[in-house]
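Worked Example 4.2. Consider the chain below.
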Amino acid sequence: MLAPAWLSSSSSSSSSRRTAKPLPRMNRGKTGLSLLLKAAAKAGHCSKDSNTSLSSSSSPSSQRRAELEEEAAPSPSSSFSSSPSFSSRTIPAVANDIKAISFDFTGTLAQVKGSTEEHYLMALEKSICNNPRLGTALWKGLRAETKIKAKILPCFSKAYKKQMKQLPVFGYGRMTSEEWWRLVINDTFIEAGVPEDLMMVVSTDVTEILYRHFATSDAWELYPEVIPLIKALNSSGIKLGVVSNFDGRLKEILRSLAIDQYFNFTVTSRELGVEKPAKKIFEEAMRKAEVYSPDSMIHVGDTVKTDVLGAMDFGMPFVFIQRHSGGIDGSRDSPQQKTIEELFADREGGDALVMQANTVSNLSAVATFLEDGYRWQAEASNRLI
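Applying the procedure from the previous section yields the following structure tokens:
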């Protein structure tokens, strides 16, 4: 077993980098997933102590939770319908070596509902039309003249990267997350063609609308396989967490999506002041999960640089989710057109093989990983074990 990261010396050199480890085999005694789901239902879908639950008085009602779970469940027409159904899968009832699993949020558990452009236009329209000094006529003229919708996404990407470079980690230590997002939102709209003097008038309202909107299930949707999987994992005794480069709204979003009760902990970049792939984030995840060896925990994510390399260098097993065919950086809006071989060019040869062997298209395969261990190609397995 690897020693905890905080007890070992580390270096940025490749010679001292931790190598990826195979996922330890689980107890071969299994409980049918359908039985676990029934047990979870009887237990009220929550087996954790109240001190570790993220639930609060602002949580959705039981009826609303049921509605959200029903909406998120895979349908016959779902793109995941060709995958083996959860009712036919099994996972261990009790984990022996794997004590916890951490999930990235965006691109792994959930995605923006609809498009970013639609949400931004909605906020701008409300801010203009509800302002007595402006009104509906101005909004219609602005939208017709500037054709902002087509420009919002590239302008947002540029503004986000600019502010992350100038004020990293959502302005950590220098401003609130909402103030940081105001800079991004202003730059996005001005770059897209909204006059600066108009943005000076509506900036506060637009930011407030978007900041609150993106803290709710109105702006986010779960991937279809998420709820069945996390229900079963939660009932199996494995601790679950969300570890994400995100601001302080993450817990609020989990509550709004009615999945907070399945997670024992969250770790965000904003609370620590550093982003994945920094080791500090993975150390904090282990601390909150009460796990004392990196290879007793799995990290699941959709971005190579932050999720895969972060976990790999920390000595933590990983599962890489590649949901979109355009690229492998976890972004459907601006896919990174690099191959695994290119991304791993400066690393040991077996790392790319491990990456390829542990890439899946959706979270359903996580149950199989827990059952059978990592899928190892011979060369990587011989080098690493």
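The first helix runs from residue 33 to 42. Confidence is low (pLDDT under 50) at residues 1-58, 74-95, 325-337, 374-385. Compare this with Example 4.1 before moving on.
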